[in-house]
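LOG
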Amino acid sequence: MSANFELDEELNNVQQDSIHISHEISIEGENQKTLERILNEIVDTLHEGSGNITDNVIFDQIRSFIKHFNTLKKTTATKVWDIVLSGFNSEIQSTAQDLDINDQDMYMQHRDPLEMYGFLIFWIIGITEQKATSRAAAAEKIGKSARGKGARSAKENDETVEGTSTWTTEKQRAMDLMSKCLELHLSKIWTATHEKETFISLFFKPAYQILENKENIKITALKQRVYKVLCICIKRHNHEFGARTTILQNLQYWEHTPEPMAELLEMLINDYDYSQLADSILRDVSSREFDEAIKDASVPRAFSKFLVKLSEVAPKVVLKQMGLLIEHLDGESYIMRQAIVEVIGNLIAYLSDVEQTDQVKNQIDGFFDILEERFMDTNSYVRTKLLQIAGQLCDLRVKFPKRRQRLTELVIGRLSDKSFWSRKQAIKTLVRMIETHPYSMHGGELDLEEWEIQYTEVTDELKAMITKPSRRRAILKGSNGNEDGMEVDGTDLPAAGDEDEDKDIALPTDEELLELQSSKEYVTKTLQQRYYADAIRFIHLLHRAVPVMCELLASTMKLEVIEAMEFFVTIHRYKVRVANEGIRKMVHLVWMKDNGDEAKSVRSRLMECYWQIYLAPDDALTEKENTALIARNLVSLTYGSTLAELTSLEQLLSTIIADSLAHTSDITISDEVIEKLWQVYSHHKDIPNPQRRGAIIILGMLAKAKPDIVANKIETILKIGLGKHGKADLALARYSFIALQRITGEKKKQKGVVAHDTVRLPMDHPIFVKLSNFIDNPTTSKNWFSVMEQALNTIYLLGEHPDALCGDIIKSRCRTIFNLQESSDSPLDQMSVDTPMSAVGDEPTMSLENAFMIDSWQLSQLLFIVGHVAIKHIVHMEVIEEEFKRRKAATGNEKKKGKENAVEDELDQVVGTTEDEFGDAMAHIRERELLFGEGSLLQVFGPLIVTICGNNTLYSDKTLQSSATLALCKLMCISSEFCEHNLQLLFTILEKSTEPTIRSNIIIALGDMAVCFNNLIDANIAYLYKRLSDSDTAVKKNTLMVLTHLILNGMVKVKGQLGEMAICLVDEDARISDLARLFFTELTSKDNAVYNNMPDIISHMSNARIDEDSYRKIMRFLFELIKEKNMESMTEKLCQRFKNTDEPRGWRDIAFCLSMLPFKTEKSFKRLLEGFPNYQDKVHEEQVFKYLSDIIAKGRAIKPPKPEMKPVIDEFENKLKEFKAKGDEVQETEAKAISAVKKGSRKGGRKPGSTLAGLKIRVVGVPDQTIERRKTRSKKDDEDRGGADEAGEEEDEEEVPPRKSTSQSMEDKEEAEMEDDMERLAVQDPQSKARASAKQSKSKGDRWDTDGDAVMDSEDVSTPIDEREDGKERSVKAVPKASKKKPGPSSASKASSSNKSGPRKKAGRKQKWSDDSSESEAMKEEDDEEDEEAPEQSKATGKGNSSRKGTSKSIRAPSEEPAATPPARARRAAASRAKRIIESDDDDEEEDDD
């Protein structure tokens, strides 16, 4: 029997894979029939009684089959499954019967069979799940490309070696039997707790093992049976602790288990009424900490999914533990914050469906408060999830009107989020809020005006209820009801006198007011008023969102653009009037670059949007009505549109027509709509001009893709557009000309492709006859210029010989103008013109003496025609050249290739082709003939135009000047010679003209000239950059556009002028700032152009003196464009710039730029430390110290932290704090010294205003502080201190013995203290130590830096005092810091300028440094050579009266180490010199008093 079976021992053997079977039979390699026979014998034995499993031989035979289960064929393995499950089922039934009888001896006999059957099922499931799990893991490791091969190989393997099936049906039967067994009263059979738990483990362990396989989770029936087994184990067999541990482990190690574990708890709670396990797990989760620094995010992600799923299926349990779970909102893990936000959303949805008690309402309000706070979460993923939850809350049955407004406001605020995902989700959420809005009382439309009207009416009614007695009485009677039974109908009507009474206002009493407020009608009206107010507020929020949405249409993220388009379609559907603003801007998306499927999807979505809004037929209307509606919609698109909007609309409509013709799109415009537009255009009745104008605009747009639309209606255009309607409305005529130009169709130029033949009409065509008559029609409208431009374009586009017709037009105009011998009757300005023209066509030559009166308006028209004909003629010549190439190419294709052609090709290579000669001839005509040829018509007008432009005071009419300047610009685009001769005149007009239109035209023309004659414009490009600071916005915008085009296309080179364009980044005009942003963004892609020009940008803005806020905005934007690989070198360059800046504002700017760098590596901080000597004396400035401290904080905030960076950061921080403390100490010491001097001056009879005039002390951490210069000393004092050098060299001051006074003894102590302070100040400065070893230069009067420029050393603390003696100039310097050093001289220019005035003036000094290390080394060597002279010079300086032959001092390079500390004697001399300066000040003041 089963005396040898021990369950614990067998389980251990299975886990250790060391199973020993006493009566094991051979399975592998055994004949299939033998195996079948053995199985049949086992079946017969167990059929006799399921308890026969206890027979060792039978049990060992079954175990032998299970041990080799994976090698069995599928039929054999299936039979093994069936034997075990059938036997287990029979044993469970017999056990249940014996338990019902309650015979202990009987049911105790079932213990061993149950354990054996349970063990066999446990073993089989373990084998099959282990195999399935290993196969799934192997499949995940294989890539998608190899996954198919793996599947095929696995399939082939199944055909040869069976037994690897999923066994889903068998596992489901096993789970059912387990559940059936667990429902028995097992405590009677297993009285010991340990033994019972061991037996129960045979069931829950396979259940957990099944859940570990991701494929099993997809089988709902199996999953539900597993849940049932586990729930029974937990509920009835004390498996709670084990289940809790296993569930938490599964969440950590199996990514697919969060949802199944939550579903398990949901079944346990709902079906078995057992929530303790869920409570304990939630408490454990709430106490866990999820560190964001850990790279593995799978653990918090698994727990977050578990919480979200549990809140969906069992929100009541989660709600109880929400007080603990909410703590994760303050944790580091953004994944857990996401989960809690989503859990809160699920709980709000749950609470909205339960009874709305006060407690529930408070809970909902509390959850909404938490959600509103999370809108400011630092992580974009949390904000995105929050927006998604807000959109889901809109779909609830309860609308939460009090909270909806605030949520809408917060969602609109997220439209400006930095994260693309947050912005995209905010748009989707806002669209969902609009679609589910609760304001559907009047059809759901959101027209602001309609709602305001309704609100006003309700407000007036409420006011009338209170103020009008008759209305009040009627309401009160109605509120009382029919308490007294039926009354006569007329009893409730107001009395006859009530109408007069309503005219007066009578306030109700308190009782009447209370009764009125409780009446049903009053309450209804009050609720309506509140309802309308909420709707109006909601609409206002939508209006506020529209400008932001318009900006998002220009986003580079295509998905975001598509969502923004969907928003505008939605609000248009709800009749929000401001939707048109976004729909008009939406049309510009038709130009989006085709970078892939995304761009195509944007354009296709744009066409769908316009189809839905304007072109889709209404099913409720007839076909005729739909045609009229679509035509009306198309015409309305032109109302108030700008040129840019019309251009984009033309591209969109032509694309729709082209796609419909190519059958690539279902969106089209029917022929009936086109015919309706022609009817509107040619309507004989007087219709509004914008309507007729809009019809021809749309027709011209459609004809761009389908020229037949216009070609078949030429007579209609000539009759309407060039007839009386066109003459009355010049704008209509202009668009009619544009429509006529569509006859030729759209020509797309392709590089390397010869142009196709173009449509050309004879010059006697009715179009040109009608056009000539139209041009001759006199008019004084300013629209004439735009009409004439399109008329000339039409002539040159359609005519065979446009030059002949245009020449006749010009000649006709000249005859009309220059034959006037008396004043014109025109009401416009008239002026006398001395014409320098030689001849006009066939007219006789006019002398200079023949002065005549000319209408300035007519002359303006003539010059405009001349200029435009000139520029169009150049285009026409290019067309002729292309036509020549086309014809030659066509002729060449017809010729047969042969020997003759080969000879011709060789000749072409030697002497050139006819095509080259033709091109040279065209270039010669353009350069020399058009403007300088004797037979050219245009050469007559060149001198006239130049004369008018050069004499703006004589020819003062604004229109004439504008036309002449424009004509001059067009003529200059023809010939480089003419351009070069008149370029300076054009620049003069650009600088001097007060008309923004003229300046804008010149700027645009200069851009064209830069393309034609690059060298001429590139040399004078500074004139263009100057216009970036123009006072007119339009000029500035045009300048920026022209420069953007020229720079990005490589027309001009950037030569350090990008600073002006950088200032445009903070321009008040949004269009200019946006264009500047676009320019720098595009420039970034051109070989580090922004990085290379950054020093010039910083220098320019420092000189431009823009405010610090603007400077920071510009730098913050520009540094975002610099690549990280350039940051380290940028750090070095910025540190070096500190040397060249001696103003605190400059220090702050450079420090801010440093703080913008990322500093993510150890090397970057080392660069910062290497440059520390350049700014160590600047860190006392608070803002500089703050910016440098921000760098330290940025380095410490890097995650994960880099250990190698910590020592470098600590070193930098220590240095920074050390020099900051020194600077603060020095400032405090200097303040004390100045205070002591002031105090001493008051005691010694000095004037209160006497200070340390002229004292400059250079100390580490403190900049040069110039206080005041002393007054000019008298001539006698100068002679006492020493004679001046004959060459005007600078001299040191002679020590003047102090004069004793009665108060001298009281001042000795104070003076001694001050002397000690001065001495300490001098000693603390390491740079003053270096200057102690500086030498005199042999050069006379000037000092030169390493670049060879004469400069002043800003570190020299001397104060120049310019005096005159005997007609000679000299400079006297007081050097309080180092009496044994040679004082630095002032430059000759400063000395001469300061000597012209009697009193001394404050001389500004500018420090200049050279970054050339080689030159610095040369200077250092020169200092070493002069070391021998230093003692004598230092000694002479100490005496104070020796004259110097050289006044220069060599400059120590910034990289040099400081010199040794000067001796005490030098320090005492420095303090003594400071004392003498102060005393000499006192002497001067006393003499002035005398």
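LOG (cont.) second protein
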Amino acid sequence: MAPSSLAAQLAQIAANSKSTLNVKAQKAAHAKSLIFEPKVAAGQSFQTVYTICREGFDDLCHLDARFAPYDTTLFSEQSQDEDRTQMTAAENAELDKKVDAFLHLVGSKLRLMPAIKAVEWLIRRFRIHEYSTASLITTFLPYHAAPAFVTLMSILPTKIPNQYKFLDPYIRSLTSPPRATIVQQAIHHFEVLSTISTWTLDSCHAQQQYPGLISFWGGVMTEAINGMLDQMRSGRKAIQRDNDQELLQKVLPILGDALMMKKVPGLQIATYMVLSVYAAKGDLDDTVLSEFMHQLVLGWTGETVRPGLICLSILAQYRSAKQISWKVAKALLKVQDLEQLLLDVHKEHRVDKLANSLALALIDRLIKKADARGLPLIRTILAAQMLNDKLASVIFKTLLVAGLKITDDIDEDGQARRQLGLTIVALSQATGESGDLYRTVIEEADFDIDDLELRLEASIRPKKFIKQTEGDERLAEDEAAAALAEEMDLDAGLGRLSKHKKTPARTCLASDSDPIFDELCQLFIAAAADKDDLMKLDEVSILARETAPADCFYFSFYMRIWLGPYPILARARALEMAKTRLQEPDCAKLDFQALQPYCIAALSDPAKKVRRAASELLAVLQSNISDAGSRKKATVTWGSQGLYKKSQGLKWLTPEANRALLELIIVPALEESIMHDDHIIAVLKETLESSNKQSTEKESSKKGHISSSIRSSIFSFLTSHVVESPVLNLKLRLLKALNQVQKVSGTSRTPLLLPLLQWWAALPHDEARSLAEKESLDEAQVDLNFVDIIVANDTTGLECVYDIIQSKTAEDRSGLVSAAFARIRKMWPSMKDRTKFDVAQKMLELSQTQGTVAEEATDLLRNVPLTTDILLAFLEALQDVAQLAAEPPASKRRRTSSSDHHRVGEMQTSPELAAALRKITLVLQLVEASEPAEHPELLQSLFMVLSELQTFRTLVGSELGYLQNLVLSSLLAMMPTYRSDKNLKIDTSVGHGDVLVSCIQKSSSPAVQNSALLLVASLSKTAPDVVLHSVMPIFTFMGSSVLRQSDDYSAHVINQTIREVIPPLIETFRKGRRPIVASASELLASFVIAYEHIPSHRRQGLFISLVENLGPQDFLFALVAMFVDKYGTSDNVLTFTADLINHFNVETQLQTLVKFLELVADMFKSKPNLSATLFGKKENEEEVNKTALKQLTLLPHILANRSLKREIRKLAYRDDGETVRIRELYAQLLEDILTVADTVKARKVLHARCGDALSSLLNLLSVSEFIKSVETLLDRPNVGLRQKVLRALESRVDSEGQTDVESRTALLAFLPQLTSVIRDSDDMLYKHTAVTCVDKISEKYGKKDIEAVAAAADTIAGKHCLGQGDRRLRVMALLCLASLVDVLQDGMVPILPTAIPQTLEYLEGSLNGAEFDAELHNACYSLMTALAQHLPYMISGAYLDRLLAVSNKSAESSLGAEDHEERTQCLHFLAKQLDAKVLFTALQKNWTLAMEVGYAAIREFISVLGMGIDKHSKASIGKNVSSLSAIFLGAFDLRRLEHTQARANMSKVAELEDAVNEVALKMVYKLNDAAFRPIFSQLVDWACSGLPRSDILGATLRQQSVFGFLYTFFDNLKSIVTSYASYILEPAAKILSNASLKDAEQREAWKRVLRTLTKCFEHDQDDFWQAPSHFGAVGPVLVEQFLHAPQLDLTEELVPAVVELAAAADSQEHQKELNTTLLKHLRSETAAVRLAVVKCEQALVDKVGEEWLSMLPEMLPYISELQDDDDEVVDRETHRWIVKIEGVLGESLDSMLQ
């Protein structure tokens, strides 16, 4: 009965309850102790425990006063009386809180005994190990390796909290859990980690932490986070993201709380360690990392700031390189000595990303709030190289950008910008690699550094120090800083300037004023930011401000400043100072046009501020000119005498031109020029280039019209200043405009500016570089602008360029030389043809020199378009060069030998030859690069050069392949032009073809050969007459060289040559008298011979191209035949030729095969024609046969090609004209094969090849098409042909699928014709083949047309086939009929009355005679097997008797195993399929015949019988029991009958009897008791009384057989048939009693009877043998058999029978009777009898045991007598009997036997 729900609830309450009424359980609970053994603890009272534990608590209070409050609670006197089971839930909860608080506090003291005693009290009194299990375990867990933890585990309750379930195995084994286990649990079960973390954090909040707890938590937490990160790894981003989020949500509260524990630095440091691991492996995003950083700095203290900084640097390393939050940065700024701390950490850890993020945050704060507090820290970070170069560059550049972004709104007093400026200056002026890096950043800055300097009021770029005079020692290296400070002091500078004397040249543009200018410039730059300082400097006497209108020093100083490499502010201030001075009255009367070029140059300044100042200055100049014009007074031109040292070449503007320049050109463009620095250049170019022919001098005053004279004046004015001014920047800026003006009023710029170029070119390299560097200009740009002075077609200018190029300083001034060549290249399109020709000749001449000039000249020629005339001139010059190189000087000719060898060796080393090769190479390269197709006129010259190269190469002793290839590629490029332009003709009489042949044959360079072949191919198409007469040697050469190349280009060349050359060549052959194939045989041979040298991957494509261009209809057969003749019929050759032929259409393939067969037939003619040409003449018949064999071997291989079959079948369905043509070719091919086959009939191998080809040919068509052909062929008289056709049909049937409807229909429709052949033909082989075809067709498709198959079967079974005398035909007919039985089944019935007798007759005949006909034998059995399988009812009666009789003979024959298998299979089918009555009746009749034939027949008979019994049902067996009984009686009589014959072999008889017994058992299994019992009775009677009494031997042999079966019967059926023993009691007793054991047969019968009885006794389970009648019938008889002991050993048969009878007759009376009789025999006089009985008694003791020994008293006297027996063996066995008895009884018999 199931328990009620109430009972279940009560059971659950009892399980969870911590109180019990069970006294034993209470005692066990009280015995739980940390200190005492359970037995001791169980006997202690609470008072005793309290006394002991109180001592420990008092000691704790002395150690730590925080324990004192528990004196009145947990450890008070009243606590002894508190019982938790009596307390309310609220009281228990309050108690738990106190316990937890105490455990938090006591955790640090658990290694001390007082603490263990205190906890002992809580366990014993308050049972905290049951009520606060989790808290108690957590308290002890940091000490998990200590013995105390093991003791704790021993007292824990059975049910512990879930988070600590992992301790169960350790609790059971009482072993310490390893740390790894705790970590693993923390990884896989977060509640473990959460419990430990919560306990630790609570302890820290209560200030009850201790180092062991924190280190334990930190270690577990770190390893757990590491493990969880590994565990949560996933290859899918979404899953990984979810895992990361889940972990973060779990640990973030714990870590956040721990980071804020300011009073517990140890916990914070442990958390830093956890964070470091988490960041390193967790792939956290920037938001999370930033939050951790914020919490970290929010909670750190002075004690934890250094490890916190390390952790912060680690977090930053895994964060992107962007700024940290201002909160973090602000916290960092508050750290004392942060700079030094960062430096210390930097020595041991990477802080680059933290420093970078911090610097970015500080800079951002600086930009937004003008907070400069972080600048010292940034300076420290950058100066200490905490960052790599890339990050440092970014930070420094960000500082520079910050200077641009800080506005006055944020930084009102400019203090932040000044500090930023000081920081940038300090960093940029630092020494070492860092200083170089920051200076590089400034130089590469993509914003206006000058503007930045103005904003920061500091000079950021590196100072350009003034050169020191020899006497000035103030700037020594050790006083550099002081010197700089002094230089920057304006008053000190002005004081130094007062000591200077005025320079002789009163202009700053003179070189001797440089020292003064440099010092003035330095002071000016320093004062530029302060206008008051500027005014002070402006008043210095050395500047001569007062005399500025008359003296050039003042204005030239400022001119040099505003065009110099100085800060923007300085340049702008210089223009402003000049403007201010010009506005004074004393300048109004002067013409300051000398300032205008410098102002115009300033208008193209990159700085807008400078351009604006320049525009204001120009406006003042324009105003002054207007005033002067209104006064109409003559003005003096300022600077006309003293501005430049030499001013003779200066051109000055007329007043009109001066006014026009300012008023009409410059001033209107000022606003736009301020906006764009290149606008003024465009304005000048447009103005100077404009040519208004209608304008006149009078019109020049009109607004907007400038006359040519004025433009010419302006042009001359500007160019003269460009030439005369020493300021390179002025030259450069004005040249940008002037170089864009070709000429003005017929005056080219080149004559005006050429002196400038000549001056620059004449300067030494160092001086030119110094001038450019002085003004911070790019020397290369200066070179380019200066050479741009030259214009195209100006002879003087070009000569100047040549002079520059060819000057001695050209190598030093390589930049200028390169610029000159670049200028020529740029002018080339504008040059006249004559000028181009001259320049090209000059360049060619220069290219043959050495050095940079030669390289530049060569490069120029390669990069400008060369005219046809130039190229022709170059090529003509080559002929002279080749001749000069080939003819040595006269003096050398006299000294050299006449030997060519020595001459070549001499020439190879001559400088002349090397120069000639260089020139030839260059010219040919130029020709090739000049697009030769555009210069077809060069063809003749190129061929001449190619011809010369053939001679020249022998002189040089080199291939000159490159040069030849250049010529050939150029010629090849011209061919399309000659083809498209009919007016261009190629001279055919010159012998270009011979030149190309020579080039191809003599060259060993594949590139040359390929190019020459391509040219030949192209010429063949363009001008065939040029090369066709020379083409054959080319193909011969190709076969030995070019075809061997494996590269793609060579393949292209070959294909191109074949495609272009062969078609016209074939057309030439067609015009000849010889057959076209014979004419081309040499060509074909060249390709065939080359086949083995052609790369394998190129072969097929090349020969396909060859055949397509030759014409496959005419040449494919010949090429294939030559292949096979040359290379034989290896698999590779056969595959290649088949693939080659398969490339073409079906008609071409069949036509090729027809011609191929004609060629083979030609070989056997008395006078071969084409075959002799292609294969060569054969000396004897053997050679002809070898060649023919190769050809005929190829033929079937090609015909068997699947692709050919597929294409032919496609055409067959179309049934159009092409199909008709295919059929015609097919017929022709068939006829040719037959013709050749007849020709070679005497040559067996060749004839066989023809047969193979014929079969392959016939297989080409589909079955339907094939049958159409077959129907025609079968009418031919050639029987052999018809037979082969049918064989082909047979193979076709095999290959066809059963689902092919068309094939099936055609083949079934063909069956009547095959039947006709079988019926009407006299040729046995033909009939045989026809029958085979019928067999194949019927087997595959017969069931679809039963009538046609039945007709064929009738014919085959008749006299025309099966009835014929030919053995092979009979065999085939039988096999065919066997197949037809499967197809027709019942349809075969009408035929069988004829077929079966004939078959049996043939079967009998196959076994008669000297030799057996195994094939016919097997065929007969095949048919009979088919009948047995499908029509078993047709085999019965006489047929079956006859078949079984002949099978007996077959079984005894010496046929092979396979033959016997055929018969066995047939008989097995009969056994399974025949009706039981028919089968068993026939077997009954056949038994005697089988015995007469022999043992093999008997064995097979038994096998068939057994299979029949197995197959048929119990009912069938029951119905035929009489036949079976007769069979088995005969079988059991086999031993007797065999014994009467001399051939008897008892061992084989025994084997047969075993088989019979086994089969008999099968019958027994299928019979019930009612059916079998009469049979059994009959069998026993038959065995004992079936023979005359006189025939004792016969009766004995029959009894042996029967009792042999009975032994098997009782042994297998066991207790089921024990009752059947009643039938054998009397016969058995009689045999045992009457047996004469001296007779061997009777002795064997005696043994078999005993064995049978033994099995009966052994399996008696129904007390059959306890019946007195049954026991009495055999018991005494058995015992009497011991008297036979002297004659034989009784232990094998008799003793087991007696023992089993004693065991089966389980009755004391029967056993006593047996024992009494046996004991009597112990007193026999015969020792053998006594010994046998003793052994029997031993066996009885073993088998029956104690029951048998109940008769021991009766045995003892006999045993005692036997102990003294005279026979030693009896005596020994008696002792063994005694031992066995003692073993059963368990006591000794000695006392009983005394």
